[in-house]
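Hi, here's the filled form for the chain we discussed.

Project: internal
Contact: R.S.
Residues: 373
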Amino acid sequence: MKIKKTIEKVPGGLMVVPLMFGALVNTIDQMHLPFIMNALKSLGVAPTDEGFYEMLRIGGFSEALFKNGALVLIALFLFSAGSQMNLRIGGVALKKGVLLTVTKYLTGLTVGLLFGYFFDPMSGLFGLSTLAIIAGMTNGNGGMYAALTSQYGNRSDVGAVAILSLNDGPFLTLLALGLLGSSFPIIAFIAVLLPIGIGMLLGNLDEEIREFLKPGEILPVPFFAFALGAGMNLANFFNPEVVAAGLTIGVLTTVLTGGAGILVFKLFKEKSYIAPVSEASTAGNAAATPAAIAAAAGVAGSSGMMSASEAASFQSVAAIATAQISIATLTTAILCPIAVILVDRYQRSKGIDGRMESEQLKESNPDKKVQSA
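And the returned structure, exactly as it came back:
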């Protein structure tokens, strides 16, 4: 039936499609339709505390996986993603990876800081929060980056993905919110970082462990996506403000993080700008970040490092931020490749072949004035 191929045709499909399906099921649940509740009651489903019968609350393994499994599955994903962070990469790839990671992070942080200054940081313009902006702008789509740089860039561009993988997950967003004044205790950082750190340690100590955990970068994604959607109402995706907010994050991500990356590459004498533009996207996995931040806020609130009201505010915006970031993912999945194609055409008109390293260009064009990448 080609179900997987069909899903993958949607930008960020392995994340977005299950999330939307989970939201659809939960939306039907929240309607409390009599014929569905009667059918569930006849099967022996226990009622909720409010006295309703819901498809996603039938108990057992089903409820644990499809309704309540998001945080555990996200932790498994982060553990597996950490194991794939190879610390042994080439010098040029290391340089590019560091430049791209730092630039993307600082750009997202700056936009989040300015937004918090001019608007309500929890529900400002279009209902945007600093959480949604930073999570959406600082976390790039590694798969898209690898695909675009492998087609339009050179080997060191592709190799930079090993450093870029450091922005997978909620850590940079958590750090940014701390810099913006939210009081997360050390234990909140440890609680988020521990799965990534242990995975990174094991993956770099043993190549077989890294290979064993590699499927964990993909396998948990549709499952935690569905569970995240199971906490949302589908109406969120048809709310004009949520759509406008998602489009805003997407456009800002492509234009500002891509533009900032180009400026930094120019400052460091890089002639090809394929890599920074290829990184100007929002990862589908970034939609999992608000849930992780909400969990960290819960830790901070229970420890007394954050007021109960501030912790509750993070938890209350998590569902909306997830929807906004999902829309941003779709937006950048369209804008980012278009931007890469345009940059590639422009560079070629200037004699720059982004597919070739500088040494290759010198060897293949000793007498021609073709600029190195």
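Let me know if anything looks off before we file it.
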